[in-house]
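In line with agreed milestones, the collection of sequences with tokenised folds has grown. One record among many is set out beneath this paragraph:
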Amino acid sequence: MSKTRELLRFSAPIPVDGRHRAEELRRQQATQAKAEQVYLNTLSVSFVNYYLRCMGFETDLNKSDSWNVIEQTLMDVADLSLKNLGLLECRPVLEDAEYIYVPPEVQSNRIGYVAVQISKSFREATLLGFVKQVQTDLFPINELQPLDDLLEYLEELSQFQLAEITDYSLTSNQELVKLKQWLENIFEAGWQEIETLLGTKSVNPAWSLRSETGAFLSRGKLIDLGKVLRERAVVLVVSLPPNNEQEMDIIVEVHPTSGQDYLPPNLHLIVLDSEGASVMEAQTRSNNKNIQLEFSCEVGERFSIKLVLGDISITENFAIC
């Protein structure tokens, strides 16, 4: 078993720029003991940085405390910042060591811990393995997970982070739609005339009546709930009276796109208050051509409209200002 684990280790020269940085930081320490600690920490971080970049992971040394003169002086730290993932602690060990020393100050806020064996010449290093968490100052080297597991673990974190970013981009449009500006013919990007989105033949006669009488101003926005399936796109319509009273009546509707007869079933239209709490909701059945909610808001008030279909949700944020 030990022979197999040895094959999964990685040995190589420590990058020259990393050795220069380690020497630079060492010279700025007040004591010999602190200088040696900083020197080994910096060599370890530099080596892990080199390895992970070769493996295709994005790192940022400048966001790592270990690359900062002040932080290195104040703490025993050997962290490496991985873009969108977090901090990976790169603990140095000397040849023939049986334990990794993990100071209490770095036993939290880390995505993992890598053991870096520094050669006697301080010019080469070997990655011995990693562990996700530690709860002791001294961790046995023979209990480390193989290096290949580290790459799989970081890849899983990357995929999870990508999924979160994608989900966030789908669930919330951070632009605030200012409805009173609509009365001055100022419209945010994406909000179009109803005829443009649905075609003149699909326009509800009530909208034409509203326009002719000046009773309401309406705009619509194409909302893609599927990102792949065309039939999951819908049109969100918001209508409001063209006046500047303290209280504004608002009508929110959802319609199928031009060419579609019905909305997808189990589509939820939800109105949220400024705290994000649901105040009213409508849901489609199997053959709904539209759904609608009506409510009133005071000037200065904020609310959100949320559309939910399965595990996909889109939120549009509004303010009466």
